[in-house]
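[step 3/7] fold_predict: job queued, chain A
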Amino acid sequence: MLQLSKHIIIPSAEIEVRAIRAQGAGGQHVNKVASAIHLRFDIKASSLPDHYKEKLLRMNDQRVTRDGVIIIKAQRYRSQDQNRQDALDRLRDVIKSGVATRKKRTATKPTKGAHTRRLQSKVKHGQLKVLRGNSFRNEID
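[step 4/7] structure written:
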């Protein structure tokens, strides 16, 4: 069971969890024990609300397949239980980030003071460049 909020709970039966062998170095132990977790969650067949499903299916994320299945591979820890919990936490994060509504950006204008300060700094920089020019050096010689 995975609890997303007070009202939304995903039953354990909807989450497919398999133990697989972890990749990478680890010595003799890694060849004997299946400590990594391969988690699959079918969005379309889940009991999530419809607006959750729509947002998750529209999400542009490499963990979501074209068939609408979220695939997570957890092999961060040496323990299978820790990897299982990590995979479930990551599933929760994927679902929450996919469903979260983005705050709409409101366009703003710079203040009058900021506008004048910017123009004054441009004038000052231009004057400094004029002073560096050859015409000033020729007048001194």
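[step 5/7] annotate
Residues 112-132 form the longest helix (21 residues).
Helices lie at 50-58, 80-99, 112-132, 134-140.
exit 0
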